[in-house]
């Protein structure tokens, strides 16, 4: 089976980008080994005022250190750090955005969680998602998988017992489907979201929601459907972050024939104004994204 390194070479990836992707991907091993001794919460909070799980900070420090020492990264912005980190001495100009441990509140329940990463060129983290050079997520479930795009379609790899990523699937396409997951409580949903959920439930959609965005999205990538974290009454921007969660996963979705929207625009066209801005998220199959946009459009007239 093709290895990650062989795939990247065959994809004509820039050498430094190949090295950077492999460096990030291989952190899955130490991260996976750290779960058992870092299940609880740290004593700290992130910039959003959310309690940080021990693995939030542990994985953030690991990846930040490794990338800072690599000489390949000019700037790094993490969901778990208030400020953008810069590495002026870097020989390359990649800018990395990341959620180092998405779903971390689930670690002690042994549900799948993951690391989400986007890689820009040009040393600037505040770019529209459409300008990404690569996007990936490692998913720590029954397998350790790496879902990756370098702008030439989406591939899924699984790590073997020797720590080598082996290609499971290339040119992944999101099928039309009827799975849906949604955050927020029904009483807090804005009217447009409530109307969308009512419509998909009437069409027989099945609820699949674990509380881990990256795991829930991966199921959508495979089986089709939609993941939603909507605007809520009193929280018009919802919960998830544009830079660390929407943009990298949205880029993967688009490369697999799906899309990501806030109900109005394609979120890959939105240039972040500041690193920690939130956004409502609808990401998944085109059949579902089209219905979201129609629902929001109808409510405008
Ligand atoms: P944690 O990383 O704090 O577990 O939050 C996970 C998350 O950002 C995303 O992965 C989930 O889909 C969403 O939050 C779950 O939020 P709710 O608990 O409000 O449903």
From TrEMBL:
Subcellular location: Cytoplasm
InterPro entries: FBPase_C_dom, FBPase_class-1, FBPase_N, FBPtase, Fructose_bisphosphatase_AS
Main subcellular localisation: cytoplasm
The keyword Nuclease is annotated on this UniProt entry: no
Cofactors that this protein relies on: Mg(2+)
Catalytic activity: beta-D-fructose 1,6-bisphosphate + H2O = beta-D-fructose 6-phosphate + phosphate
Entry's EC annotation: 3.1.3.11
Record-stated family: Belongs to the FBPase class 1 family.
UniProt-listed PANTHER family: FRUCTOSE-1,6-BISPHOSPHATASE-RELATED (PTHR11556), SEDOHEPTULOSE-1,7-BISPHOSPHATASE, CHLOROPLASTIC (PTHR11556:SF35)
Protein name as annotated: Fructose-1,6-bisphosphatase class 1
Species, as recorded: Methanofollis liminatans DSM 4140
Gene: fbp
């Amino acid at each position: 089976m093709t290895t990650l390194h062989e795939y990247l070479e065959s994809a004509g990836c820039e050498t430094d980008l190949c090295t950077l992707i492999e460096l990030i991907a291989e952190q899955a091993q130490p991260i996976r080994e750290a779960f058992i001794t870092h299940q609880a919460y740290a004593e700290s909070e992130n910039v959003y005022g959310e309690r940080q799980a021990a693995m939030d900070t542990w994985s953030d420090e690991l990846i930040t250190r490794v990338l800072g020492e690599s000489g390949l990264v000019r700037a790094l912005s993490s969901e778990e750090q208030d400020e953008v980190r810069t590495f002026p001495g870097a020989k390359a100009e990649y800018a990395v955005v990341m959620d180092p441990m998405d779903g971390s509140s689930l670690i002690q329940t042994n549900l799948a969680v993951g690391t989400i990463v986007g890689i820009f060129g040009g040393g600037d983290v505040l770019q529209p998602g459409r300008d990404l050079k690569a996007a990936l997520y490692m998913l720590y479930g029954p397998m350790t998988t790496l879902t990756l795009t370098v702008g030439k379609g989406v591939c899924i790899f699984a790590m073997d017992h020797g720590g080598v990523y082996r290609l499971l699937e290339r040119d992944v396409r999101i099928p039309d489907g009827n799975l849906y997951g949604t955050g927020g409580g029904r009483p807090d949903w804005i009217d447009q979201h409530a109307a969308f959920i009512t419509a998909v439930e009437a069409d027989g959609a099945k609820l699949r929601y674990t509380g881990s965005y990256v795991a829930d999205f991966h199921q959508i990538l495979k089986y089709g459907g939609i993941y939603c974290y909507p605007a809520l009454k009193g929280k018009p921007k919802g919960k998830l972050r544009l830079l660390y969660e929407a943009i990298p996963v949205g880029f993967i979705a688009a490369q697999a024939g799906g899309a990501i929207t806030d109900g109005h625009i394609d979120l890959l066209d939105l240039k972040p104004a500041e690193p920690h801005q939130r956004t409502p998220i609808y990401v998944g199959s085109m059949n579902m994204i089209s219905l979201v946009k129609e629902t929001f459009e109808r409510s405008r007239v």
